[in-house]
Amino acid sequence: MATSPPDCDKAVFRFAPSPNGLLHLGHALSALTNERFASLFEGRLLLRIEDIDLSRCKPAFEQAMRDDLDWLGLHFASEVRRQSEHFADYAQALSVLRRRGLVYPCFCSRQQVRVAVAAEEAQSGRPWPVDPDGAPLYPGLCRELDPSEAERRVAAGEPHVLRLDMKRAQALAGAAVGYRVFDDSGEERQIPARPERWGDVVLARKDVPTSYHLSVVVDDALQGVTHVVRGRDLEAATDIHVVLQRLLGLPSPAYHFHPLLIDETGQKLAKSRSSESLADLRARGITAAAIRAQLGFA
Fold first, then answer.
1. Where are the alpha helices (DSSP H) in 125-271?
2. Containing domain of residue 223, as a range?
3. For residue 52, is it within any domain?
4. How far apart are CA 129 and CA 127, in angstroms?
5. CATH code where residue 191 lies
6. pLDDT of 46-92, one tens digit each?
7. Which residues on adjacent β-strands are paired with residue 130?
8. What number is the average pLDDT over the span 91-97?
9. Cβ contact 15:47 at 8 Å
């Protein structure tokens, strides 16, 4: 799936929030870090709305995000890319992987996976491996299903997800898969990727016909993104992204992973934990200049 990004000889960065809640200080840190690097590289900063999960992403949250970003004084180049308007792009990428025999339907429920993992642990006497997020690696129950049987079950409407056959993907991508990272001064170095630690990741579901991994890889290529700046919690996921880039014939940006903001309990700020939002801070009379100073962007 080779693609031609927009013609531009400048560095291109992107800030890509999901409108499934209100932005907090962690999002402000990420957005402002992107702004700082875009200025350092004399490049452009794009805004992308990552709203593939239509059940959780709401227009009201998107508008609130835009208000917060305007309040912080952030300015973005060109048009905003909204992922929910580009499912066809992700379907095309998925079809490329399917034609290469890299994707298979998986009909296992979470309970079936848990039972299979528990059985493997009981038999081996050793803990089953987990991915960087702490979830058990998929034990491959559906990986070797007869293709005709799998097609019959899909046609019958049986619930399923589409998984990447990681072992085959790595074989086709080649042994020397890695990516460039850059530091605060812009200096780059190459590091190896370790996608095998993720196992057969999910690339699409029946209710959401793409995944974060697939959509960001396609979007970065189509938007001509040259530098990705995001939190350290997404560093390990880059292993998956560079493999997909290699398989789809897409360019690989350089990456920078900034520190995360931690609350008083030692946990990272998160929408799911109802961390204090930028809107709440604004309502308390805190200024955008004060937020910038607090985060080191005075």
1. 147-155, 166-173, 212-222, 238-248
2. 12-103+161-294
3. yes
4. 6
5. 3.40.50.620
6. 999 999 999 999 999 999 999 999 999 999 998 899 999 999 999 99
7. 136
8. 98
9. yes
Contact 1, 96 (CB under 8 A): yes
Instruction: Tell me what the pLDDT averaged over the chain comes to.
Output: 94
Strand segments, DSSP code E, in the chain are 12-15, 44-49, 81-82, 103-106, 161-164, 178-182, 188-192, 202-205, 227-231, 254-258
- Give the chain's radius of gyration (CA, Å): 20
In a domain, 129, yes or no: no
Please answer whether residues 21 and 270 qualify as being in contact, where contact means their C-beta atoms are separated by less than 8 angstroms: no
Torsion angle of C-alpha atoms 5, 72, 16, 296, degrees rounded to 10: 100
Pull the structure tokens for residue 220.
């970065």
User: Residue 121 corresponds to which tokens in the numbers above?
Assistant: 């642990």
Long-range contacts of 111-115 (CB under 8 A, 24+ apart): 112/141, 113/138, 113/139, 113/141
Beta pairing, strands 202-205 & 161-164: antiparallel
Token pair recorded at residue 66: 């835009």
Sign of CA dihedral 252, 256, 262, 267: positive
Q: How many domains are there within the chain?
A: 1
Contact by Cβ (8 Å): 31, 231: no
Does the pLDDT of residue 6 top 80, yes or no? no
Tokens in use for 237? 């996921």
Question: Is 88 inside a domain boundary?
Answer: yes
Residue 202 tokens, joined: 């999910």
Which tokens belong to 104? 């298979």
| Reported pTM | 0.92
Confirm whether 149 is domain-assigned.
Answer: no
pLDDT at position 78: 82
